[in-house]
Amino acid sequence: MDHSGHGMTMDLPPFTLGRGLEWSADPFFLVACLLGLGLYGWGVVRLVRRGDKWPVGRTVAFVIGVLTIALMMCTRLNDYGMVMFSVHMVQHMVISMVSPILVLLGAPITLALRALPTAGRGRKGPRELLLMFLHSRYMRIVTHPAFTIPLFIASLYGLYFTPLFDTLMGSKPGHIGMMVHFFAVGMVFFWPIMGVDPGPHRPGYLMRMLELFAGMPFHAFFGIALMMASEPMVGTFENPPASLGIEALSDQNAAGGIAWAFSEIPSVLVLIALLFQWYASDQRQARRKDRAADRDGDKELEAYNAYLASLNTQGR
Question: Fewer Cβ in 10 A, N or C end of the chain?
Answer without folding.
Answer: C
